[in-house]
Structure formats: C-alpha cells, structure tokens
Amino acid sequence: MKKLLILLLFLPYFGITQAPNRFDDEVLEIQKKNDSVWDASKPTLVFTGSSSIRMWKDLQERFPDQQILNTGFGGSQFSDLELYLDELILNYNPVKVFIYEGDNDVSAKVRLRTIVDTSERILSVLQQKKQGMEIVLISPKPSISRWKLRGKYRRLNRKLSRLAKKTDGVDFIDVWYPMLDKRKVKQDIFIEDGLHMNTKGYDIWYEVLKNHVN
Prior knowledge:
- By secondary structure, this protein is an alpha/beta fold.
- It has a single domain, classed as SGNH hydrolase (Rossmann fold).
- It is built from ten helices and seven strands.
- It has a five-stranded parallel β-sheet.
- Helix 9 links the parallel strand 4 (134-138) and strand 5.
- The longest helix has 18 residues, at 112-129.
- Pfam families: Lipase_GDSL_2 (PF13472).
- Keywords: Signal.
C-alpha cells in the first residue's frame, strides 16, 4: 500500500517530464528543408528558437540581401535548443545567429535561474565551436494569452540583457516594449490564440531587428 501511495505521488512528476529526444523528428525535417536551399559558399544567418521563429514564414523575403535559414522548432525551450546546437546552428557555419527562447520556459514554470544557466551554457558552447560568430538573444515577447506572467518575463529579460552585456560577441534585442501600447500588450498583432503573431506582429519585429540583420 505504501509503495502504491509513493507511485501516485510521483505520477504528476512523470507526466510532465519531457523526453529529451522529443524533437528529433522535427529537427530532422528542418535539416532536410534547409540543406536543400543552403548555399555553403555564401555568408549565412540563422534564426532559431521556438514557434515565434518557426512561424515567421517570410523571414527570408524580408531580408533579401542576406542568406537566412529558419531553424525554429515550435514548443521548444532553451534546454531543447541545447540538445541540437550542431543540427540547428553550427552545421550551417553562420556568421550570426538569432536565438528566441524563454517564452515557453516561463510558461512551463522553469526557474529563471535555470533558464539563464542553460542559456549561458549555450553561449559558451557556440563561442567555443565557432569563434567570431555573432550571437543575438531576442527577448521573450509579451502576449495576450501569457500576459498574467508578464512579471516573470520582464525579470527574465533583464537577466538575459545582463548576460549579453557581460559576454563578448553577444547582443540582446528587446521586442517586449515595442509590442506594448503604453502598459498593455497590443491586441491586434496576434492570431486567434493570443500567443502567436500575425503580420503586424512580425512588422514590429522586422523594424526592431533590421539593423542587426543588415
């Protein structure tokens, strides 16, 4: 009876534990898609991270003078990206990489210290394996569906900004405040789920990021 009670206590923990290889199939498909269009002779910029990157369908069209690969994979966290640094970034020998993670981390109640520690390891590995590559951390964005977590997002953004400032070759880009209307998130820049952006949302991102891309 005691063993059964212990098992029941741990069931919720087992239920939320994520398989470390849960993105293997999706990452393989991303590789196949990008390998078919990538020109290794040209300088490459990689955009990677969670669904806000994955769903930026006209990313290359917005920056026609650059070769850009989109290796975003929806639902990912910093810890997921850490498992696929070669497949999603380093194998394409980029001169610059833009990383958008942290959005799902906060929503999944990952501790901020854990998020920052993971991001710091990612930066270290990338810089060791590809010296001279510029790295840009894009701040987690505000959204309608996760507005109640805005305090945690702001704290994470401050921590990521400080991490970038103390790390050579790393920049931090704030998309949080450009997406606000005074103290509230803009309502007309999202699709129906209140989380993912429509064209107006990506217009804001384009304006914020364009100088860093070009």
